Amino acid sequence: MSSLSDFKCDVCVIGKGLLGSAAARHLSEMGVSVLLLGPDEPKVRSDHSGVFGSHYDSGRITRIIDTDLYCAQIAEASISRYAELEKFSGIDFFEPVGHLAVSNLDNYISKIVGTARHLGVDAKSLAASELASRFSYFSFPSGVSGVHEHSTGGHINPRNLIKAQIEMLMKAENEVVNETGSAIERHDGFFRVVTQNGKAIKANKVLLASGVFSERLVDSREKLDLEICESTVVLAELGKEDAERLRGMPSVIFRQEAEYEKGVYLLPPIRYPDGKTYIKIGHSESRPMSDPDANLVKWFQGKGDPVIADWLKSQLFSLLPGVSFTDIKTESCAVSRSPTGRQFIDTIEGSGIHVLLAGNGYSAKSSDELGRIAAHKVISGEVPEEYSDIDFKVKYKRT
Ligand SMILES: Cc1cc2nc3c(=O)[nH]c(=O)nc-3n(C[C@H](O)[C@H](O)[C@H](O)COP(=O)(O)OP(=O)(O)OC[C@H]3O[C@@H](n4cnc5c(N)ncnc54)[C@H](O)[C@@H]3O)c2cc1C
Fold first, then answer.
1. CB of 361 closer than 6 A to ligand 1?
2. Does 37 contact ligand 1 (Cβ within 6 A)?
3. Ligand 1 centroid vs 228 CA: distance in angstroms?
4. CB of 280 within 8 A of CB of 235?
5. Which of the following CATH numbers is that of domain 70-155: 1.10.10.10, 3.30.980.10, 3.40.190.150, 3.30.9.10?
6. 268-291, pLDDT tens digit by residue?
7. pLDDT digits (tens, 9 = 90+) for 133-179
8. Which atom of ligand 1 is nearest to the CA of 360?
9. Kind and range of the H or E element at 200?
10. Residue 363 CB less than 6 A away from ligand 1
C-alpha cells in the first residue's frame, strides 16, 4: 500500500521518452513544477518484461523537407532550437550531415520541393546525374531524382536528446522519477499517479506521453484510435576504411513505387555505445501488429521480422554496392499511428488526462516542438495560436 503521496507537483508527465521529456522541459520553462515519470532503458532487452521505448537507438533522421507542410513546419520549429538546447544542456545530439530524399515518384519529389520552397529551406533539387556525381557511393536505380537538404538535415541521437531535455529539467529543480506508472487515479481536484513500486504522485494535472504502451494507463472505455505497428531495422557494421570513406554521408529516405512497404530510410555511419560504427536501414511504412496487448513486449524482446530484415539487407547491398559490411544485426521497434497521421495533443474525454501521443513514426526530429505544443495545451487549454486544436484532436475507437 503506497503512502498518500510521496511526491507533489503541478504536472506529472508520464513517459520519459522523446515527447514526454520535451513536454516536461517546456512545462518547466512555463513556470510550473513538473515531475517526469518513466523507467530507464533496460540493460538487456530480451529478458525485460516491462514497458519499452521507441528511442532506444543512436540515430534518428532529422529534416525539414517533407511532402506535408504541417510536418515540415513542426520539424523546422524543433530544429531551430537544437543548437540552443545543446548549448544550455551541454549535451550534443545533432549531426548536421544533411538529408537526401530520393524517389522515382515525380509527385513525391515535387511536393517536397514545394514545401521546401514555401519554408525557404536550405535545400537543392538534384537530377539523377547530379546525385551520381555528388554521392558516388550510392547506386540508385534509373529514373530517380532527389532533394538535398543541407544545414538543417542530418540525424539526431535520441538518447542524447532526451538526456539534454532532462538536464534542463533538473537544472530548473524539477523531479525525475525512474519508475513505471501503473495507475492514474482521479480524485476531487487532483490526480494520484501510482508507480509499480507503490510510490504515489499527487499532481494537479497529468500528461500521458508513454508512447506505444499508453493504452495500459487509459481506462478501457476510452479506447484511443491508435494503431501499433511493427518496425524492423538492420544495423550493418562498417570497417574503418568504409566508415572513413562514407564520412559526411547524409541521412536518406528512398521511396520507390511498387516496392514492399513502399520505401526505405538510411542512417549514415554512426558510432554506437558498443564502440562499433553502423549504417542503419529501415522501412518507411510499418505493418500493424496483431493483438498488441499480447504481443508488444515479445516483439520488443525479439529481433524483428526476418523476412523484412532480408529485404532490407538486399536494399542496403544494392544502394551501397561498394561497401563491405563486417557484421549485420537486426532489431525491433514499434510506432503508434493515428488515423489522421497527426499527433494526439488533447484531453481524454471524461478523464481530464492530457495526452501527447501518436508519434506516427516521424516524431523524434519534431519532439521539441510537439512537447512545446503539448505544454501550452496543458497550461492554457489551447495549442499555441500558430496551430489549430482541431489538428491534434484525439480520436477514439467507437464500437
Ligand atoms: C525503428 C524506428 C525508426 C524511427 N526513425 C525515426 C526517424 O528517423 N526520425 C524521426 O523523427 N522519428 C523516427 N521514429 C519515430 C520516433 O522514434 C517516435 O516518434 C518517438 O520515439 C515517439 O516518442 P514518444 O515519446 O511518443 O515515445 P517513446 O520515445 O517510445 O517514449 C515513450 C516512453 O514512455 C515510457 N513508458 C511507457 N509506459 C510507461 C508507463 N506506464 N509509465 C512510465 N513510462 C512509461 C517508455 O519507457 C518510453 O521511455 C522512428 C521510430 C522507430 C520505431
1. yes
2. yes
3. 12
4. yes
5. 3.30.9.10
6. 999 999 999 999 999 988 889 999
7. 999 999 999 999 999 999 999 999 999 999 999 999 999 999 999 99
8. 19
9. strand 200-208
10. yes
